[in-house]
Amino acid sequence: MSRSLVALIVVIVVLVGGVFLLAGRSTEKEPVRVEKVVPLENLTR
Fold first, then answer.
1. Cα–Cα distance, 12 to 14 (Å, whole number)
2. DSSP H/E element including 45
3. Element housing 3 (H / E)
4. Residue 33: what are its φ and ψ, rounded to 5°?
5. Could you read off the pLDDT of 7-31 as tens digits, one per residue?
6. DSSP label of 4
7. How far is CA 21 from CA 8, 26, 28, 30, in A?
8. CB atoms within 10 A of CB 15
9. What is the reported pTM?
């Protein structure tokens, strides 16, 4: 095999491995509860 073909195969294997690595990562986060103060004048309408 020529060097360019071996280099191309190595690059493809690294890219495919990176795709599977990133796809397997868990990116879900718990929702953060944000409490805001509501003025009473907005509730009387």
1. 5
2. none
3. helix 3-23
4. -85, 125
5. 999 999 999 999 999 888 877 888 8
6. H
7. 20, 10, 16, 22
8. 10
9. 0.54
| Residue indicated by tokens 């805001």 | 36
pLDDT attached to residue 43: 67
- Structure letter (DSSP) for residue 1: -
Report the C-alpha gap between 20 and 14 in whole angstroms.
10
Residue with tokens 């103060």: 37
DSSP states of 10-44 as a string? Answer: HHHHHHHHHHHHHHTS----PPPP------HHHH-
Identify the residue whose tokens are 């073909």: 5
What token pair was written down for 35? 């409490």
